[in-house]
Design goal:
Blueprint (H helix, E strand, L loop, with lengths): L1 E5 L3 H13 L3 E5 L2 H7 L9 E5 L7 H11 L4 E5 L4 H9 L4 E4 L4 H17 L9 E4 L2 E4 L4 E4 L2 E3 L3 H11 L6 E2 H9 L7 H15 L5 E4 L3 E4 L5
Parallel strand pairs: 1-2, 1-3, 3-4, 4-5
Antiparallel strand pairs: 6-7, 7-8, 8-9, 10-12, 11-12
């Protein structure tokens, strides 16, 4: 697997690159946010995972994560010394797939890298469904992961698309919050509830269809198909 390591400390990067290489990774080292963004052109440039340190010299790591997510769906694992819950939620809301706090165990890091890569390849909520879904003015192209409203493309993060695709494949069916977190985020409900609420609010705003995703109080969410 090709891996993009974004780390401004050359000593840390060299040591980590050596470990990753021993485990079969083809590592490309970027020393700044801009260098990382250039390495991901075109459309991810074949990288399986981006390992993103947040302490970069030229740009805030959160900002870089947001830019990466706009360019590609390549999984991003944030690496930082910031361990507070708000920082983790902020990173996940920007489109990060996982968050590792320093100091970390190398075995845990390797396990997380393999986990996010497996999710991307094998566990897409859109997999195995029909190629396109139509919900009034909203069209969801599952193979290309493109969403349009009245013909105009809407830019969604990877998790926003996964959430929308999950709900849209079974309109009218209520999905429990715990079920959504399990299927889209591949984790447990604890500590992730606020992240789900933020993603639902973002989808409503971006799609300009506030009534499309209905909150079922005390249970979860369902997609309300527009009347024809």
């Amino acid at each position: 697997m090709r891996l993009l390591l974004v780390e401004d400390d050359n000593h840390v990067a060299a040591a980590l690159s050596a470990v990753l290489a021993r485990h079969g990774f083809d590592v490309t080292h970027a020393r700044s946010g801009e260098e990382a963004l250039q390495a991901l052109v075109p459309e991810g440039a074949g990288f399986g995972v981006v390992l993103l340190d947040l302490g970069l010299p030229d740009q805030d790591g959160y900002e870089v994560c947001g830019k990466i997510r706009k360019r590609t769906s390549t999984p991003v694992i944030m690496v930082t010394a910031r361990s507070d819950v708000r920082s983790r939620i902020h990173g996940l809301n920007l489109g990060a797939d996982d968050y590792v706090v320093k100091p970390y165990d190398t075995g845990e890091l390797l396990a997380r890298i393999h986990a996010v890569s497996r999710r991307t390849v094998h566990e897409d909520p859109a997999a195995g469904a029909e190629s396109a879904l139509h919900l009034g003015p909203v069209r969801i192209e599952l193979p290309t992961r493109q969403v349009t409203v009245d013909g105009s493309v809407v830019q969604l993060t990877r998790k926003e698309f996964d959430l929308l695709a999950l709900l849209a494949q079974r309109p009218g069916v209520v999905f429990r919050r715990e079920q959504i977190i399990s299927e889209v985020w591949r984790t447990s409900w604890e500590g992730t509830g606020r992240t789900l609420e933020v993603h639902v609010a973002s989808l409503r705003a971006k799609l300009r269809q506030p009534a499309l995703i209905e909150t079922v109080r005390g249970v979860g969410y369902r997609l309300v198909a527009p009347a024809l």
